[in-house]
Every structure is written in structure tokens, then in C-alpha cells.
């Protein structure tokens, strides 16, 4: 967002999300986190859809070089950061399973939760983990992330930017640690130079 800010007079809308590889190992914490918002209202103050609920408002996201993925509403902590720093009018985060049938299954459970069925989902984190890992055998080693930015340029014309990360060979889970790795390496180099 910071890199593209200079190309916009105003950034009005951000639609972004992730669709990790199905074969990627998942932990209980991830499965449990998804269950906390499945079919429940998401605390998004600025959102394109009214009555936004977890894993609802399905749409299909095309990714370059890999198959399109179904996406549904997700909840993350950075909404406030984006809206405050870039004065966005609307923002939407989505999460997509690589397996379309798995994604639709999660969507249907979310629909049941919206109807008010008394299902204590938090008790089923381990079961969800096994369920999603079962689908791993049908998945690939490719995942993606997208950021779709809409706004106005200096002449007042609409401007769109599409930004993607395509992770192959199961490398998606390693991406968040790359900046930390670079900092550690730089620190070691500086210490070596200082000690020399």
C-alpha cells in the first residue's frame, strides 16, 4: 500500500485476501481462529457488504498462473491500520480454501450459524483440523495472496492496481518470516563488522 500510494491522489477501496495451499500443514490455533468468526458478524467498520459475517459473501478470485479460488469474508487485525493510514472508504479481507468443496462446506456451516443454530464450534477445532488436512491429498503446492486497490489519480480518473504473490512448491508459509530473516542476517553482518 505504501509503495503504490504515490500513484494515487486518493486510495478509496482495498480488497485483499489469501488462499493458502491445501497441502500446507495447519495447526490447531489456525483452525480454532477460523471457528471464532465462522458465520458470525465481523468487526469491519468499513466494508462493501452490509451485515458482513465470516465465510460469507463468496466470490471467485482469479490468480495469475494458478487456478481461481473461492473466497469468503475473514477477520484480521490490520483493518484499523489500513483505514487510518490510507483513509480508505471501504476495505475487505477474504480467506479462501484451495478446495472448492471444502470452501463451500465451510460456507454452509457459516450459514447455519447465521440462522442461530446453537453449535459450539469452538469445541471442534481438532475435528476441523483433521477435516481440512484430509483435503490436503487433493490439493496442490500453490497458494496466493491478492491486493486490489481502487482510487483516483491526480486528474480525478479512476485508478486500479492489482498486486499478487504466487507461492509455489509450498513456500507460502515461509513468506512472513523473510523480513525477519533479513533483519537477523543484517544484524549478524553488522556485529561481525563492528567486532572486526
Explain the overall architecture.
It is a single chain. The protein is α+β, with helices and mostly antiparallel strands. α2 crosses α5 (125-134). Helices cover 33% and strands 25% of the residues. It has a six-stranded mixed beta sheet. The model has no long low-confidence stretch (mean pLDDT 77). It has helices at 2-5, 28-37, 79-86, 100-114, 125-134, 178-195; strands at residues 10-19, 59-63, 66-73, 90-95, 143-152, 158-167. The chain has a single domain (2-171), classed as Dihydrodipicolinate Reductase, domain 2 (2-Layer Sandwich), CATH 3.30.360.10.
Radius of gyration: 19 Å
CATH topology: Dihydrodipicolinate Reductase, domain 2
| Termini Cα gap | 39 Å
Question: Order of SSEs, N→C?
Answer: HEHEEHEHHEEH
**What's the CATH architecture?**
2-Layer Sandwich
Helical content band: 25-40%
- Unreliably modeled segments: none
Largest sheet, in brief, is: 6 strands, mixed
In terms of DSSP E residues, the strand content is 25-35%
| The CATH class | Alpha Beta
Report the count of strand segments. 6
Report the structural category.
alpha+beta
| Total helical segments | 6
Please tell me the overall pLDDT.
77
Please give the domain count: 1
Amino acid at each position: 500500500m505504501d509503495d503504490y500510494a504515490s500513484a494515487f491522489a486518493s486510495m478509496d477501496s482495498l480488497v485483499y485476501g489469501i488462499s493458502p495451499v491445501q497441502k500446507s500443514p495447519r495447526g490447531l490455533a489456525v483452525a480454532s481462529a477460523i471457528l471464532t468468526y465462522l458465520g458470525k458478524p465481523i468487526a469491519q467498520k468499513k466494508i462493501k457488504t452490509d451485515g458482513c459475517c465470516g465465510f460469507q459473501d463468496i466470490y471467485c478470485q482469479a490468480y495469475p498462473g494458478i487456478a481461481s479460488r473461492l473466497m469468503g469474508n475473514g477477520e484480521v487485525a490490520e483493518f484499523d491500520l489500513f483505514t487510518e493510514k490510507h483513509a480508505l472508504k471501504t476495505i475487505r479481507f477474504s480467506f479462501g480454501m484451495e478446495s472448492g468443496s471444502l470452501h463451500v462446506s465451510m460456507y454452509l456451516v457459516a450459514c447455519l450459524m447465521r440462522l442461530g443454530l446453537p453449535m459450539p464450534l469452538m469445541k471442534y477445532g481438532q475435528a476441523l483440523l483433521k477435516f481440512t488436512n484430509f483435503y490436503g491429498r487433493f490439493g496442490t503446492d500453490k497458494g496466493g495472496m491478492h491486493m486490489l486497490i481502487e482510487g483516483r489519480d491526480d486528474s480525478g480518473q479512476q485508478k486500479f492496481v492489482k498486486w499478487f504473490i504466487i507461492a509455489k512448491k509450498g513456500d507460502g508459509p515461509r513468506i512472513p518470516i523473510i523480513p525477519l530473516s533479513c533483519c537477523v542476517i543484517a544484524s549478524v553482518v553488522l556485529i561481525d563488522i563492528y567486532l572486526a
